[in-house]
Design brief:
The C terminus is likely disordered. The chain is built from 15 helices and no strands. Helices cover about 85% and strands about 0% of the residues. The protein is globular, with a radius of gyration of 21 Å. It has about 425 residues and is mostly helical.
């Protein structure tokens, strides 16, 4: 593939993933508006807590498989189906292993919480598993750099999800019914995406699947062993990014979670364009690493870093000015305190997008073992600051803690990513 065609493919796939992520961002923003208007601050806080729990628990089931599958299938496309089936079995095993301690913790730590919230939290492991199975299918299409299918799946799922959220909240249902609807939508997406994947792979040059019986268990355990360094890093990243919501819930209550989460929805939206670029960039640089084109990849990576810094600064400027209008327009007057939260929180965009890019680069170049080390440092810093700052400053303390920890992570990741040149091996 020529350089021009590679750049065209990267641009095309970035656009498709951007549109796909745009649909997810639309889900985040519009669902926040719906929930805020019909459930109020506390109800919205409960929903945000459940989804934060799903996000954290999900990474114990994903265990880095999505990134691992994308890289491996991009380099060995004839093994796509074997990797996919093995990942599905591994995720089922991991889901069962995660569910046991999860339900024990649920009984111990949430006994005095609202009944609807408890019912919603009970559904979390099921939702986590279905989302994980969906993610494996998406990884196959991303590895083949066939992003239009991802866009199709997301648009259909988002449309169904928003329709259900609006109908259920308008009818007066609580958070447990909303999570049930999310389970149904994700199951529908899984069945449809599985069908589309079978149709897509039938004309591909695949090698024979020579695994039978208990051999699948052995193969799946081997995949877990190979994927866990990436999984460990993604767990650390997710815990780091969701720790603020969890601790806010326990220390400050559902109302504070609602106000904080309303502001954070904008951060998720702003991360979408660089996330789309990285989604298209990752399989391409993974193949370049396998083909020995490290110098070109490294040069493009350095250029991307400065573009991402500029993007983060632009986000800060826009949100600081527009926050009062955006919050009041999308939510209601009861969310007015979210304005100052958002104007402070948006500063984390600069280190956030840099950290995301650094992790993508380290994964693609086979240095994923470095990411957990840095990420766990971030968890310790963030957790310690949150425990001190939330009781003292409330949501502003959560913002301060997240910003400081992400700035520290950026410095550490920058050092890790630039210490060794591509292709010089692990440190």
């Amino acid at each position: 593939m020529t350089s021009t065609s590679s750049q065209q493919l990267l641009a095309s796939n970035t656009l498709l993933l951007f549109l796909s992520y745009l649909s997810q961002a639309a889900l985040g923003v519009l669902s926040a508006v719906i929930l805020a208007r019909y459930l109020g601050v506390e109800g919205f806080g409960q929903y945000a807590l459940v989804m934060a729990v799903v996000g954290i628990a999900g990474h114990f089931v994903e265990l880095g498989f999505n990134t691992f599958l994308t890289r491996e299938i991009a380099q060995q496309r004839s093994e796509a189906r074997r990797f996919l089936l093995g990942s599905w079995l591994a995720k089922v095993l991991l889901a069962v292993a995660m569910a046991i301690p999860y339900y024990i913790l649920l009984r111990v730590g949430f006994q005095d919480r609202d009944d609807a919230l408890l019912a919603a939290l009970v559904l979390a492991p099921l939702l986590v598993l279905i989302i994980a199975l969906n993610a494996s299918v998406s990884s196959v299409f991303i590895a083949y750099e066939h992003m239009n299918e991802i866009l199709l799946f997301n648009v259909l799922a988002v449309t169904a999800q928003l329709a259900g959220l609006f109908g259920l909240t308008w009818a007066g249902y609580n958070v447990d019914a909303l999570i049930w609807w999310t389970v149904i939508v994700q199951m529908g997406r899984f069945l449809f995406s599985w069908y589309r994947m079978e149709w897509f792979l039938k004309n591909k040059d695949e090698g024979p699947i020579q695994i039978h019986g208990w051999g699948w268990l052995k193969f799946s355990m081997n995949l877990i062993n190979r994927a866990w360094p990436i999984g460990l890093s993604t767990m650390a990243v997710t815990i780091h990014t969701r720790l603020d919501v969890i601790l806010l819930s326990f220390i400050a209550g559902d109302r504070m979670v609602g106000l904080y989460s309303a502001a954070y929805r904008f951060i998720d939206l702003l991360r979408m364009p660089p996330g789309a670029f990285q989604g298209a960039y990752f399989p391409m640089i993974s193949r370049a690493e396998a083909d020995g084109l490290g110098t070109e990849v490294e040069r493009n990576f350095k250029r991307a870093r400065w573009w991402f810094i500029g993007y983060g600064l632009g986000c800060v400027l826009i949100i600081v000015i527009l926050a009062p209008y955006l919050v009041r327009w999308l939510y209601t007057e009861q969310f007015t305190p979210s304005i100052s939260i958002l104007q402070s929180l948006v500063w984390i965009m600069i280190p956030l997008v840099i950290n995301d890019l650094m992790r993508t680069y380290l994964y693609a170049t086979g240095r994923e073992h470095l990411v957990p080390k840095v990420s766990f440092i971030g968890i310790i810093i963030n957790g310690g600051l949150l425990l001190w700052a939330i009781p003292a400053f409330g949501t502003l303390g959560a913002v301060m803690s997240v910003l400081i920890s992400n700035v520290v992570l950026s410095g550490l990741f920058w050092n890790m990513a630039t210490r060794k040149q591509l292709g010089q091996g692990k440190m």
